[in-house]
Amino acid sequence: MKNETKAVIFDFDMTLADSSYAIHHCSNLLARKFGLKEISREVVLAGIGLPIEDCWRLYWGDFKDEWLSYYRNEFRGVEQTGIRLFPNTVAALEKLRGAGIKTGVVSNRRFARRVLDATELTPYMDVIVGLEDVTNAKPDPEALFKAVGKLGVAAGEAVYVGDTDIDMRTAAAAAVRGVGMTTGNFDEEGLSAAGAWRVCSDLIEVPGLFGLK
To answer: What is the mean pLDDT of residues 123-146?
Structure first.
């Protein structure tokens, strides 16, 4: 399996890092500013993986450009400082890259590179594709196609690691093997039902899928 896999591409939120507490905090700061209903972390987890416009429609039944402008100006930095990498994120990336496997990120975040810079993961990535780089959000496979193309590998030589059904559906649409992570809002059963090739509970398990110890 190791020799067949030349690239492992990751989602970001709840896959490489726990952003749920930071997003929960900042979403409620926004809610207080605009008189919206405050939301629970469970609601935030249900929305992670969606573009921010769809998240807010899930949270509050609406989306306004005014909210987005205010959030970006006032809370984006606060959000980024509250994001925490999962304990084995860097170790897993180092194992993969040490074996010559290319790594990257495909995210429904707009300006995805900024959050990778903030979490100091950019040096570990050969490609970063965010919502600003494509016309269609996941589960459309456009972003994953773009990442695979930039890495110069075939779909069958790539794996996409994510924590949501959206990620697994994106992988299937791109003919890429999907590895589900139970670190987000989906359990093993839900990820398998969405098409996961394998399911892991910790990122350090991912290199082992390709024979790396």
So the answer is: 98
